Amino acid sequence: MRVLLVEDDALLGDGIQAGLRLADYAVDWVRDGEAARLALQHHEYNACVLDLGLPKKDGLAVLKDLRGRGNATPVLVLTARDTHADKIAGLDAGADDYLTKPFDLGELQARLRALIRRASGAASPVLEHGEVRLEPAAKRVTRDGETIALSAREYALLHDLMTHRNQLRTRAQLEDSLYAWGAEVESNTVEVYIHHLRKKLGSDFIRTVRGFGYQLGEKAGGESAGGESADGDAPA
Ligand code: CA
User: What stretch(es) of the chain map to CATH 3.40.50.2300?
Assistant: First the structure.
């Protein structure tokens, strides 16, 4: 899961970034509204945490610009004052949720999980596909009731695929969800983690759509899915 953090307060931004990284989010942190606008134009995020009082371009203008371009990235607004006017303006400009400073980091994380879940169209906090259940709050994955141990990156990749369960995910989109800017991306990283996930969850759990990317299989962990799906060792 990749999150854009827009906060000009160095101390607060540092704390939020550290907290979100501990929760295994890939975090890009920018400190002014213009940088936020550019980041949102050029990258895909699972969510954005947006301060309203920002240099160069205020948070409301960033939000209006984003929605004006038809971009539906979930946005959680941070307001400095507990005033109704600020909250109403934020929600009217297209914010999905808000928090008033000072806030608890645990609450921020819970609200982000809820935003990302709602954006995926899932009403339940638990993501399910076939026998596999993923509980974002506990970061727990089970298959047929048994807990499956996953590394942080395997988990991040699986979470991305299960959040977009009926969509094709390109390798670039999956890489984006794994890394923040500047992090080293090796050319076959996604393939390696997909391979690990198939070993742990069943070879048909994730389909390769040759030339495009990956998608959850129709029959999770069961018999062969067939159709146009092709596994890694089919001839190119
Ligand atoms: Ca500020």
Answer: 2-119
Could you tell me the distance, in angstroms and rounded to a whole number, from the CA of residue 113 to the centre of ligand 1?
A: 23
User: Is CATH 3.40.50.2300 the classification given to domain 2-119?
Assistant: yes
Q: Map tokens 């991305």 to a residue.
A: 160
CB 31 within 8 A of CB 8: yes
The Å distance, Cα 192 to ligand 1 centre, comes to 40
Length of the chain equals 236
CATH 1.10.10.10 range(s) for the chain read 127-233
Please give the distance, rounded to the nearest whole angstrom, from the Cα atom of residue 90 to the centre of ligand 1: 14
Q: Ligand 1 centre from 178 Cα, in Å?
A: 28
Cα of 229 vs centre of ligand 1, distance in Å, is: 48
| Between 32 and 136, residue with greater pLDDT | 32
- Is the peptide bond preceding residue 102 cis, with omega within 30 degrees of 0? yes
Distance CA 232, CA 236 (A): 9
Question: How remote is the CA of residue 53 from the centroid of ligand 1, in Å?
Answer: 4
Per-residue pLDDT band for 24 (boundaries 50, 70, 90) equals confident
**For position 143, what pLDDT does the model report?**
94
Domain 127-233, classified CATH 1.10.10.10, yes or no? yes
pLDDT of residue 91: 85
pTM for the predicted model, two decimal places? 0.73
